[in-house]
Amino acid sequence: GESVGLHLPTLSVQEGDNSIINCAYSNSASDYFIWYKQESGKGPQFIIDIRSNMDKRQGQRVTVLLNKTVKHLSLQIAATQPGDSAVYFCAENYGGSQGNLIFGKGTKLSVKP
Amino acid sequence: EAGVVQSPRYKIIEKKQPVAFWCNPISGHNTLYWYRQNLGQGPELLIRYENEEAVDDSQLPKDRFSAERLKGVDSTLKIQPAELGDSAVYLCASKPSGGSDEQFFGPGTRLTVL
User: Which residue in chain A has the smallest CA separation from B57?
Assistant: First the structure.
């Protein structure tokens, strides 16, 4: 079936380094992708999103890259801080405005001071 | 602006008991979602509402789960009777009709079934 998955379940980085979290998706019809951050005991929090007509989008310290050829999505966090420690989920939507988000399993990011 | 509100935050019940969760979405958000999140997993959609209409409940286990959004604002998700495997975090999310596809999540209700 269609699925969204992550390459690495855990990622440990040093404070100040850049982090890259990867995600593979399988539905070529997906036209919207989103990254969420979830801290312990909280609901997912929006980080950044991208539509399929783009291959890169930048926010504050975060960049999302979309490679439709290999169905790959990545989240780059610049100058990672302890407050970035959380579980990161990618999600895809292939149903347009009537569609639903399909979430992957998540990657836990740990930032060492 | 207030975010998505959920209550209770935590609930512990014995199996076979009923339980209900409440969600108040962000004001003006017509679309409301209920998700279930198992430990270490991403959220999985249970039901989606457009105003008061359930437009996608294909993933809702209808033998024991029910939901309502009578006036198209707040919503209740019920489980009766609860089973051990229902232990999870139940998340509510909302988004406005049209515009961005970003969903805004509440803090969730952590359910433990003993």
Answer: A100
